[in-house]
Amino acid sequence: MRLLSTHHVNRSWPQLAGLVAVVAGFYAISGIGMAYVAGFDAVHGRLVHAHWWWLGPSFGGVLLAFCGYYFAYRGIKWAEGGPELEAPALLAVVTAGFVGFLAHGGTALDEFAMRAGGADKREAKVRVGAIAGFEHGVLAMIVCPAAIIALATGVVVPRTDFTWPWAIVPIPAFVLVIWLAKRYRERLRRHGGWRRVVANFFDAVHLVYTVLTSPRRHGPALAGMALYWGADMFALWSATAAFGFHMSALSVIVALGTGMIFTRRTAPLAGGGLITVALVPTLWYGAAVPFAAATLGVVAYRFFTLWALLPGSFAAIPKLRELGRRGEDAGGRDTRTDRGEPALEH
What we know:
This protein is an all-alpha fold. The chain is built from 15 helices and no strands.
């Protein structure tokens, strides 16, 4: 349990090798399990008639998504007078977060990066929460109008089981959470315990709201996160096209938004087999993708988003360990938090 309790940056190389083997096992088991459900003959037929050249654009989409994620992460880090990180350190943190393996679905990896940049403990937690909120918030901003368009035009794929919740829930949820944050975050911040936790959450909401409502000032962050999700959706679409099925734009948007229960950064061990098990049935049911094509498409997509970029995560480990040592001694210097409340409260 200690091995799986936090980020994996400081693990020994034998431990990391063992964790890679675990993830590989989950990846293989989930793929084989989905192929069993689809029928091995159906999967074999899709493989025989595959259009392999589509996998090149799929991997290109993943690389483009990485570029978008870099600018989105940098924008949240800098928003409202945030901590400073030199470019190599920022690249190391973004690489680890994008692949997700080293982060282990937690916040410790991002927190010590923020601390190394000079943020105090509280601001680090707020900004890490804002990164997750920004990630899911922009996804909702993409999926919600797609679902509304699908309903307005009367299309049956994606299925209404998926489109109605996306069309109805996000806007009132955003309004409610933003109202609660504006009303209660300052008074809750004065207390400890659970109220301090809620205050940190509301401050993270406020930071995301600040970025979303200031497109001129925070344009690179907004464009980066939109590029991240758009390129990720294209990568999934292209991987599925390689095995004989071309989803509509509305289908891939709504299906990925629904099946992405956890992102790679927030899921344990970069999603392992969890994302595969979630996405394949979602594509089959919600986007009418044949189960065999969905299985092969998702397995290929997950290969690019996990295994193809995993060496980059390992190459970033020395810089991440350096950040960890630096963050242990950081006390909120070099940011505006050392002069009272952080600029997050504006």
